[in-house]
Amino acid sequence: MKEHIERGYEAFKGFPLKDKIDGCPCCRLDSSEKILHTKSLRSLSFDDLEDFIFKAMTTFGDVDDFKHFLPRILELYIDDFFGAPYDIGILFSKLEYAKWEAWPEEEYGAVDQLIKVWIKTLKKSKSEDDLEILENIRSDMDIYKTDLGNLFF
Question: Using CA atoms, how far apart are residues 46 and 48, in angstroms rounded to an integer?
């Protein structure tokens, strides 16, 4: 799994953290934006990324900003699924919003393979927690009308 996480960081290294992440002026995102500049990407927690995960590309940042944070967000969901501030369906809907299937192969492939390896690992697991995570992923795909069913095959 670690190898695929590293591939994600490598694929998106061309999207550095901007000096200023644009956000909706009405949403008062200054403190959330400031937090994202206080730590290295790999040190950011769900608490640090909470506003960005929910508001990415709609009221906070653009696709390039999303790509910058995506490897860390995926890593956090994989390592601490139950500590996530939102259902993973939010992340899947953000991928669709960003039109990830049209991204360059290196980027799309890194995300696609990481999620597939994660799901495959969960499917092989006998852990009740892992099976619950897998069920949450499946139900979120239905709830958020996310068309990522190909990841389960």
Answer: 5
Each as own residue / partner, the long-range contacts of residues 121-129 (CB below 8 Å, 24 or more positions apart, any chain) are: 121/1, 129/82
Condensed to tens digits (0 to 9), the pLDDT of residues 65-83 reads 999 999 999 999 999 999 9
CA distance linking residue 143 with residue 69, whole number of Å: 24
Q: Which helix (H) or strand (E) holds 143?
A: helix 128-143
Look-up of token digits 């890194």: 110
pLDDT tens string 46-56: 999 999 999 99
The answer to whether 39 and 48 have CB atoms below 8 angstroms apart is yes
Buried b vs exposed e over 124-135: b needs ≥16 C-beta within 10 Å? eeeeeebeebbe
Picking from 116, 67, 118, the residue whose alpha carbon sits closest to that of residue 95 is 67
The answer to whether 91 and 14 have CB atoms below 8 angstroms apart is no
